[in-house]
Amino acid sequence: MTSTNNTYDDVTMVVADLDGTLLHDGKTFEDRFLTQRSIDSINRMHDAGIKFVVETARPVSTGYSFVQKLPVDAVAYLNGALLDFNPVSSDYDMLTSPTLPKDGHLQKIGFSSKRACEVCKYLLEELPWHGKWASSWMMSGTRISTSRKYWKTQTWRYTDFDDVPDGTADKLILFPNEEQWKRVGRLIPDDFDVHISEGSLWMLMNPQANKEHALSILADRMSTPLSRTVSFGDDLVDIAMLRESGRGVAVANANPDVLKIADEICPSNNDDGVAQWVENNLL
Question: What is the pLDDT of residues 63-76, one digit of tens each?
Answer without folding.
Answer: 999 999 999 999 99
